[in-house]
Every structure is written in structure tokens, then in C-alpha cells.
Amino acid sequence: MYRAIVTTAMVSAIALVGCGGVSEKDMIANSRGASYSQGYGDGCHTAKSETHENNTTKQIDTMRYAHKARYKEGWDDGHKECLFRESKVKKRIGESIKR
Predict the structure, then answer these.
(1) Strand extents, DSSP E, the chain
(2) Cα radius of gyration rounded to whole Å, the chain
(3) How far is CA 57 from the centre of its chain?
(4) What is this structure's pTM?
(5) What's the CA gap between 49 and 78, in Å, rounded?
(6) Per residue in 71-87, pLDDT tens?
(7) How far is CA 1 from the centre of its chain?
(8) What sign for the dihedral angle of Cα 81, 62, 39, 90?
(9) Where are the domains of the chain?
(10) Residues 70, 64: contact at Cβ < 8 Å?
(11) Tens digits of per-residue pLDDT, 22-66?
(12) d(Cα 72, Cα 78) in Å, to the nearest integer?
């Protein structure tokens, strides 16, 4: 019983923080810089696009990717993280449909 209450409280706290006025992109920009944040957003957009069958839009600033280390690092991190998240969501949806 105690474990269920603590888990519910933690999930609720996370949900409330997620609904706050600061977006994930803003938090990244504040901690890593604007170039990293823009690269992260572009990489994440591309990963989300790749996981949807009818949409393969690659969003990347090729000049910045080639010459700006922070943008490249952000793009790579955003692509990897969002590809992982999207694949987990897709897997959960597939599992729930099978039930």
C-alpha cells in the first residue's frame, strides 16, 4: 500500500513538473547553450519523423553540423534520445493492441 502511494505521488510530481512553464528545450538551452539546444531539437524532430512510416523529414543544418561541435553534439544526442523514446512508445502501443 505504501509503495503504491509513493509511486503515485512520484508520477504526479513528474507530471506536474512536465506541465510547468519551462519546456525541455528551454532547460537544455539554459544548461548547454542555444546551439546545442537547436541541434537537439532538430535531431529529435528527425528521430520522431523516422519512426512514423509515412514521414521521413530529416531536419538538420548541414553546415552547422559539419562545423559547430555543440550543434553536432546536440543533434546526435537529440536523435538518439528521441529515437529511443519513440521506439519505446511504438512498442507499448503494439503490445496494447495485441491484448
Answers:
(1) none
(2) 17
(3) 16
(4) 0.64
(5) 13
(6) 999 999 999 999 888 87
(7) 33
(8) negative
(9) 22-98
(10) no
(11) 566 666 767 889 999 999 999 999 998 888 766 667 899 999 999
(12) 10
